[in-house]
Amino acid sequence: MLSPNIVPDFTRLRVAVVGDLIADHYLYAQPTRLSREAPVMVLRYQREEYGAGGAANVARNLWAFGARTALIGVVGEDERGDELRRILENELVDVSHVRSVFGWSTPTKTRILGAEPGRTMHQMLRIDREPANGLQSAVADQMAETVSSLAGQVDALIVSDYGYGLVGEAVAGAVQEVQRAGALCVLDPRRAFAPFNGVDAMTPNLAELARAVGSTPAALGDANALNEAAGVILNKYGPRLLLVTLGNQGMALYSGEFPEGVRVSASGSEDVIDVSGAGDTAAAAFTLALAAGLEGPRAMRVANAASGIVVMENGTAVCDLSRLRSALPRAPRPGGLLSWEAEPVRQG
Description:
It is globular, with a radius of gyration of 20 Å. The two termini are 35 Å apart. β11 (241-245) and β12 (251-254) form a beta hairpin. Helix content is 30%, strand content 26%. It has one domain (14-23, 53-107, 134-330): Ribokinase (UDP-N-acetylmuramoyl-L-alanine:D-glutamate ligase, 3-Layer(aba) Sandwich), CATH 3.40.1190.20. α1 packs across α7 and α7 runs antiparallel to α8 (296-310). A nine-stranded mixed β-sheet has the order 5-4-1-8-9-10-11-12-13, sandwiched between helices. The chain has a four-stranded mixed β-sheet with strand order 3-2-6-7. The model is unreliable at 336-348 (pLDDT under 50). By secondary structure, it is of the alpha/beta class.
């Protein structure tokens, strides 16, 4: 049996990601004084840069872990879409299945980060630019056909739903074809749980789980309520595994084997800098670990260790294989797994 402190070899895995592509735009600035025009801070511009978010960030993480990675999605015929494609090409992610769509605006999140000299930059404000019109069903159908063409060609498929319209019935049908051909299929959902009945795993965060069961994140802070909500998802949508990411409370894993959940406390330092993209990293690492043959709780530990790395960096950072290998031996171990000692779980 592979030691729990050894990261499996991901380099032979062929993984595809389908979902919503987002351009992350960062503006870095230095606070200087209070404005005389309004009770707001005046910031002095320093620099700006673009990053890849949403499904594109999942793909970046997969590539950083060493997997052969293909990305399926759409961007607009705009500067932000061009920049997003350039970033991915520079990182050697296969973007041959990324389509530029006339009339579509690339979803963009502009984050303004500021700090005094010598201090760590922190996010101060976010501005979202979203498509004015929904994605045409014909485009979603074409993307679904591309997904179907990968049946038998990939070891794993991740569906990254950010609610921009690509992830729906058409893609769900194609995912079933890929799954029947033997690929591990994982859904990282925003809202689209229902079409993906029977996927191998789902990886919602606490807010997404709460929305799906008609509750609130605060209500699910109670362990019994969280277990009950997880049971609803398992029974209603039938994933083999349900990984719930809980922010600074770690993660919880549910299945028919673990109906009461297996918990792990958060990995890394408590001095979190930026949680942007941590769910993408978790979904990528969890999927790869499962595809490499790890059972659910150990795959969760790998995902938790990877997430603990990226939250210590500004922006939608990625965790590469070398840092994951370094972090895993120090990462918390899930409670109640095999002969491992249970880790204390911080309660919300």
